[in-house]
Amino acid sequence: MKYINKVLPVSLPVICIWLFAAIKPQANTTFPLYDLHVHLSDSLSIEQAVQLSKERNMKFGIVEHPGICDYCPIQNDQQLIEYLDALRNYPVYVGLQPVVSGWRELFSDSIINKLEYVIMDAMEIPQEDGSIWRIWLEDTQVEDIDEFMEMYVNYHIKILEDEGFDILANATFLPKSIEDQYEIAWTKERMQRVIDAVVENDIAIEINSYYQVPNAEFIKMAKASGAKFSFGTNSRNSFAGTTDYARKMIEECGLEEKDIFRP
Ligand SMILES: [Zn+2]
Asked: Do the Cβ atoms of 190 and 149 come closer than 8 Å?
C-alpha cells in the first residue's frame, strides 16, 4: 500500500472508482430500445437473431427488400405471404425495406397491412438516364458535393412525400468518399428541408448505429421540429442490436420515450 501510494498520486479507493466507471455498462435508458433494421442472411438466421435479441434484451425488427431489383426476393403477394408466415411465430417485428419506388403496386393492400412497419432510405437514386445510382457502394465517387447534395436532398423530399413509409433509414448517410465532409455537406438549411418533409409526412428518423448517423445537430433540430426517432443497425450479422451510438445520441440530445417511434 505504501509503495502504491508512492508511485501513484491517488489512493486505492479512488483508483477503484475510476476502474468501476470505466467498465460499468453504459447508462440505461429510461425506455426500452430495439433494433428495427435487421436483415437475415447466411450469417444471421432467424433463430440466431432471436437468440441475439434475448442476449441484448431488446426486440428486433426484421426487414427484407420488396420490389423489382436484382437483390429483392419479395416481388409478389405469394412471396410476401411466405415471408410473413416464416417469421410470424418468432418474437420479432416484421417489416419491409423497399429500395426502389413502385414496389407497393406489386402487392395487395390487405397483405401489406399485415406488416408492422416499412423503412426506406435514399441510398438508391434514380438518374436521368434511367439507371440507379447506388451511393452505398464503397467506391461511389462524388465530384461536386453541392451538386450531389442538392440532388440527394431533392430525392429525400420526393420519397418522403410519395412513398408512404414509416421510418427514414440510414438518415443523412453519405458515400464513403465524402463521409468526412459531413458538416460541409449537411448544411443547416439542407438538414431542415429533410426534417420538414419528415415531420410533414409523419415519418420517423432512424438513428443508425452502424453508419453513426445522423449527427447530434440533426437530431436536436429534428426533435425541436417534433420528429420521432427509431433505432437500427442495418446489420446482417451479430452486429444486430448494437446500440452504442443510439445511447450516446439519446443522452446527448435528451431523447425521451415520447420521441421514440413504436411499431
Ligand atoms: Zn437495410
From this structure: yes
CA of 37 to the centre of ligand 1 (A): 6
Cβ atoms 64, 96 nearer than 8 A: yes
Question: Is there a domain that residue 238 lies in?
Answer: yes
Which DSSP letter does residue 92 get? S
Whole-number Å distance, alpha carbon 130 to ligand 1 midpoint, is 23
Residues measured by CB to lie within 5 Å of ligand 1, the ion: 97, 234
pLDDT digits (tens, 9 = 90+) for 63-122: 999 998 889 999 999 999 999 999 999 999 999 999 988 899 999 999 999 999 999 999
Q: Ligand 1 centroid vs 187 CA: distance in angstroms?
A: 25
Residues 196-209: pLDDT tens digits? 999 999 999 999 99
CA proximity to 233, closest of 241, 225, 244: 241
CA of 209 to the centre of ligand 1 (A): 12
Distance from the alpha carbon of residue 89 to the mean position of ligand 1, in angstroms: 22
How many angstroms separate the alpha carbon of residue 97 from the centre of ligand 1?
Answer: 6
Q: What is the pTM of this model?
A: 0.88
User: What is d(CA 193, CA 149) in angstroms, rounded to the nearest whole number?
Assistant: 12
Residues β-bridged to residue 124? 134
Compute the distance from residue 15 Cα to the ligand 1 centre, in Å.
43
Task: Give me the number of domains the chain comprises.
Answer: 1
Residue 5 lies in a domain: no
CATH number at residue 51: 3.20.20.140
pLDDT in tens, 21-47: 444 344 567 899 999 999 999 999 999
Return the C-alpha cell found at 53.
Answer: 435479441
CA of 8 to the centre of ligand 1 (A): 50
Range of the domain at 237: 27-259
